[in-house]
Specification:
The complex is a heterodimer of chains A (72) and B (628). Chain A is of the alpha+beta class and 72 residues long. Chain A has one domain: Alpha-Beta Plaits (2-Layer Sandwich), CATH 3.30.70.100. Chain A contains two helices and four strands, in the order βαββαβ. In chain A, strand 2 and strand 3 form a beta hairpin. The radius of gyration of chain A is 11 Å and the shape is globular. Chain B has a seven-stranded mixed beta sheet, with helices on both faces. Chain B has a six-stranded antiparallel beta sheet with strand order 2-1-3-9-4-7, with no helix packed on it. In chain B, strands 12-17-16-15-14-13 form a six-stranded antiparallel beta sheet. Chain B is of the alpha+beta class and 628 residues long. Chain B contains 21 helices and 22 strands. Chain B has four domains: 123 residues; 93 residues, Calcium-transporting ATPase, cytoplasmic transduction domain A (Distorted Sandwich); 207 residues, no CATH class; 115 residues, Calcium-transporting ATPase, cytoplasmic domain N, CATH 3.40.1110.10. Chain B is 52% helix and 19% strand. Classes of the chains: A alpha+beta (72), B alpha+beta (628). At the A-B interface, helix 1 of A face helix 2, helix 4, helix 7 and helix 9 of B.
């Protein structure tokens, strides 16, 4: 399944790159892309565990930049 | 400015005032500390806090941490000097100044990014807010997503057409500029297809909805542009990869700089100071921020001109176009066949010839038949035409007004033993014979687009080295059109499958760096569009197939937009390159100068935030596609 999430307060471009890399490493993620300009996370992951993976992705993002929030 | 930014501005002003007091007032020693320390914490507590939190989360080399290390280091060195009475070049003011300028830079950066995010959003402001439907005789505004197929909506003058549909009542002019970049309004009357996203300019129209909002043109375009950013360009990936190595490398060099030289030369404080300067320069932000910004600006600017680009990677590839391959019919030509010439036999009126052919063809929907019917004023006359018989590969036979009529190619005339005058011209020649007598020849041809020749010349000036035309037409027609337009190569008599093969051959023959672009109408060339490095479909407005199949969609039917797209791509890529070179040159320059003691904290701060700001300003030029 592929879904796009909005992000709030994504202020640093380097963080966006770091988030993208970290999300790609989550088990079950097929592909991920964090767009700094549109403040959007595109997540493609296994269907069965999608919600769980999305929550994990949001957690990873706030780990990289505590100010930034993924709107699930 | 957002609330967050305003708060930051207030902190900068307070801290800046304290800083100036400390600098200008005749204070020294411990008194100066009373001014500088509060100034430092007012401006820097956020950074300190974030750095601490990120370290706990395992993010070590992040810019907050580096700024903290550099400024706390400077504070520490200054305190050491103060306590021991040693004279060095480091002061408290330096730590404050670095933090202050870092924050000013960050504020500016976030303001500039916010601004370009908004201006791109404005460019793409085609989302309709509501649709008017009639309920119990009154107009009610509803969410476009709630309108079903078959429902009728009313669009008043000045309103956006919210959903795709067919005009059932009214007549008006619509502005398609938001979709196509074309400022000349189009006229719309009952029976015409209305495309969502256009603005109704003059009259009131009623539309029967043919597609739900999610499948309407406007939703498709928005979806496409919003997803474009997720397809990243090589330059973008290169920079993020580079950043991953750059920061640790600079931090390690800083550590080495602080430890190794003083072992042999002494002067710990001075070398530590230089190492701190390294840390300030180590943030890759200018690079990382300005590149997606440039690409996004380019994509946004292009969409304002009716050129939809589905990803930064395609914009990047487009700038490297080496050869462009065109489909002929519907791309270089209008795709509509017209009678261009009649050559009647002696004592035959042209209209007589045309109508004989049109009548015989009156049951056919073939493009040639349609053009014949358009050319002859006589409408369908069922009772006059009988015994229609298709003769495969030759034409047809029909009995018109009781007389046997043959309409077809030269082979048909020969087969019927009719003496005819061969016509050697570009296009399709139709010979007509009635009751054993030759009536004449009709030349039917597809017309070139008016701007084709000029557009191709423009492409050459934009640096395209080879122009190739593919066509399913016969060789003579293909060659003639190719020559007229100045094509470098023409491949004719290709079946749809052969076109893919031909493109593969061309792909193998081009240089490694150069890209192959295929331009088609997106209707039956989807396999070729996807096989080429970049597939461009023309006339996306109203054609879902084109929007789906291509990497780049020209919303308007204008070939001249191709050169515009290439110029936008080249400009964007030039900006990207300028930013990469400029940022790296300044950073490396400052690193080298500070290693030998010729650059201080000020230069380092400039190399960090100053460069970011300049790179962002440069990137925002990509948005402007009015002047290229």
């Amino acid at each position: 399944m592929k879904k796009v999430f909005k992000m709030r307060d994504l202020d640093c471009a380097n963080c966006a790159a770091k988030m993208e890399n970290a999300i790609k490493k989550i088990d079950g993620v097929i592909d991920a892309s964090v767009s700094f300009m549109t403040q959007k996370l595109t997540l493609e992951a296994e269907d069965e565990r999608f919600d769980e993976i999305a929550r994990e992705a949001a957690r990873v993002c706030s780990k990289v930049d505590a100010d930034c929030e993924v709107l699930l | 400015m957002s609330k967050k930014q305003k708060r930051m501005l207030a902190r900068i002003l307070v801290s800046g005032a304290l800083f100036l007091t400390g600098e200008l007032a005749p204070l020294d020693g411990w008194w100066a500390l009373l001014c500088f320390l509060p100034a430092y914490f007012i401006i820097g507590w956020g950074v300190l806090l974030k750095a601490g939190r990120n370290i706990l989360n395992g993010q070590i080399f992040d810019e907050n941490f580096l700024m903290c290390l550099a400024t706390i280091g400077a504070l520490g060195l200054a305190s050491y000097d103060l306590a021991t009475g040693a004279q060095s070049m480091v002061g408290y003011d330096e730590a404050v100044a670095v933090m202050l300028f870092y924050q000013v830079g960050e504020l500016f950066q976030s303001y500039a990014v916010g601004k370009s995010r908004r201006s791109i959003a404005n460019l793409m402001d085609i989302r309709p807010d509501y649709a008017n439907i009639r309920q119990d005789g009154v107009l009610v505004q509803v969410d476009p997503e709630q309108v079903a197929i078959g429902q009728r909506i009313v669009v008043k003058a000045g309103e956006k057409i919210p959903l795709d549909g067919r005009v059932v009542d009214g007549e008006t002019m619509v502005d398609t500029a938001a979709l196509t970049g074309e400022s000349v309004p189009r006229s719309l009357k009952a029976g015409d297809d209305a495309v969502s996203g256009c603005i109704n300019l003059t009259g009131l129209i009623e539309i029967e909805v043919t597609k739900p909002f999610g499948e309407s043109t406007v939703a498709k375009i928005l979806d496409l542009v919003e997803n474009a950013a997720s397809k990243k360009a090589k330059a973008e990936n290169f920079i993020t990869k580079f950043a991953r190595y750059y920061t640790p490398a600079v931090v390690i060099s800083a550590a080495l700089l602080a430890l190794l030289p003083p072992l042999f030369l002494g002067g710990w404080g001075e070398w530590l100071h230089r190492a701190l300067i390294f840390l300030v320069v180590s943030c890759p932000c200018a690079l990382v921020i300005s590149i997606p910004l440039s690409f996004f600006g380019g994509i946004g600017g292009a969409s304002a001109r009716g050129i939809l680009i589905k990803g930064s990677n395609y914009l990047e590839a487009l700038a490297q176009t080496e050869l462009m391959v065109f489909d002929k019919t519907g791309t270089l030509t209008k795709g509509s066949f017209e009678v261009v010439k009649t050559v009647p036999a002696p004592q035959v009126e042209p209209q007589q010839l045309l109508c004989a052919a049109a009548l015989a063809e009156s049951y056919s929907d073939h493009p040639i038949a349609l053009s014949l019917k358009r050319a002859c004023a006589v409408q369908q006359a069922d009772d006059r035409v009988q015994e229609v018989q298709t003769l495969a590969g030759k034409g047809l036979r029909a009995v018109v007004d009781g007389e046997e009529t043959f309409v077809g190619n030269a082979a048909l005339m020969q087969a019927q033993g009719i003496a005819y005058t061969p016509l050697q011209e570009i296009g399709t020649v139709v010979y007509v014979a009635r009751a054993g007598r030759y009536l004449g020849a009709i030349l039917i041809a597809d017309q070139l687009r008016e701007d084709a020749k000029e557009a191709l010349g423009d492409l050459r000036r934009s640096g395209i080295r080879r122009l190739v035309m593919l066509t399913g037409d016969n060789r003579a027609t293909g060659q003639a059109v190719g020559q007229l337009l100045g094509m470098d190569e023409v491949h004719a008599e290709l079946l749809p499958g052969d076109k893919v093969e031909q493109v593969e051959k061309l792909l193998a023959g081009k240089s490694e760096q150069g890209k192959l672009v295929f331009v088609g109408d997106g209707i039956n060339d989807a396999p070729v569009l996807s096989r080429a490095d970049i597939g461009i479909a023309m006339g996306g407005l109203g054609s879902d197939a084109a929007i789906e199949a291509a990497d780049i969609v020209l919303m308007d039917d204008k070939l001249s937009e191709l050169a515009v797209a290439i110029r936008i791509a080249k400009k964007t890529l030039a900006i990207v390159r300028q930013n990469i070179v400029f940022a790296l040159a300044v950073k490396i320059g400052v690193l080298l100068l500070s290693a030998v003691g010729m650059a201080g904290m000020w230069q380092a701060v400039f190399a960090d935030v100053g460069v970011s700001v300049i790179a962002i300003l440069n990137a925002s030029r990509a948005l402007n596609t009015k002047k290229l």
